[in-house]
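Reopening this ticket.

The earlier resolution said the output was attached, but the attachment link was broken on my side. Pasting everything inline this time so it's all in one place.
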Amino acid sequence: MNIMKAVFFIFVSLLLVVATLSQQENERACELPGITFVKDCNTCVCNESGDMACTMKRCKTFRSNDHPSRHE
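Inline output:
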């Protein structure tokens, strides 16, 4: 039972760390209202309250062999 408590504690701690780092990244991105930037394959804009709004396109991920090769 103690092992399950420890695993749960570690899981919750990791979630908090990820949430904190994600929030810090978003805060750094929106220091000035009106700034637009690209995040992954989406366009984001910072509003007057400092919140970030982004398009919600599905970004295509490429595997190393998925890239089209150029034949010149």
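Reporter confirms the inline version is readable. Residues 2-54 form one domain. The helical segments are 2-29.
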